[in-house]
Amino acid sequence: MVMSPTSARSSAGAAGRLIGTGRWSVGSGGRLSTGSRLSTGHLHGGRPSPSPMPHVDEEEEPESIVDKLQVARVVTTQNPRQMMLTVQLKSAQKIAWSDLEILQPVSTGSFGEVFLAKYTGDTHPQWKGVEVSVKRCVLSGHESMTPEQLANLEREINTYQALDHPAIVKYIGCVLEHPNLAIVTEYLPGGNVFDALFMRRVDMPAFHRLRIARTVAEAIHYMHGLEPIVIHRDLKTQNLVLDKSYGVKLCDFGKTQPLWSECLPATEDNGGSPRYM
């Protein structure tokens, strides 16, 4: 079912705010700058968010209160400087690395490695004992990461928190315990569409192909109906994962940006993969 723009806007007004809360800064002399914070516009090449971080009323229900800013400090590969990753989290979205039982590797990319794991913690009782997907950042031999890796991790966490749609992979939480910086989502056992078509050579019937196309269109329709519009910027078959019945869901939001104006400035990166652009 396609969610109407009106219902999407009414239920997801936090999209721009959440995506806009990710900030990192490097102080002079290589020291962490905790006083100044950069807006989404400065970080991702767009213009700054027109609204500040929303005020939280003390009388709100506990589960709706953003109780803490999680900060993970990582040493970058550019000089001996440090960078600071800040994401706005509810307490229920924090996951300890010790609560994940890694079962087997699934895939490895330039920015992360994906594992099949079992969640064994108590913070998310509905997921306890269930197989989940863990996407962990690939760090160098010195346990460092590049600014681009940091920006991708930051954008992906904040975007997942802002999206909620049946055609988008379900976000469970994240691990921010350096050197374990990871995103935990639901696990779909069918792998991605690219591997199904070109690696395993699955002869997928036209019915399933059309259903995949329709479902992806529904996910993009939902994202483009938010305020501000959320642009995936890396839509490709590798970022479409399948269940056992060839049901598909959209994942990987490391390139995602909110569209505050009529176009996205290309001051940071162009996003996407060349063969899909």
Strand order of the largest sheet: 3-4-5-7-6
CATH H-level superfamily title of the domain at 5-43 and 69-189: Phosphorylase Kinase, domain 1
The H/E string reads HHHEEEEEHEEHHEEEE
- Write down the CATH topology of the domain at 5-43 and 69-189: Phosphorylase Kinase, domain 1
Low-confidence stretches: 1-81
Termini, distance in Å? 27 Å
Strand content: 15-25%
Shape: globular
Q: How many helical elements?
A: 6
Region (Disordered): 25-64
GO molecular function: ATP binding; protein serine/threonine kinase activity
Domain Protein kinase: 100-277
Protein name: Protein kinase domain-containing protein
Q: Short summary of the structure?
A:
The chain is built from 6 helices and 11 strands. It has helices at 5-11, 14-19, 40-44, 147-162, 193-199, 206-224, and strands at 68-75, 82-89, 100-108, 112-119, 131-137, 171-177, 180-186, 229-231, 240-242, 248-250, 257-259.
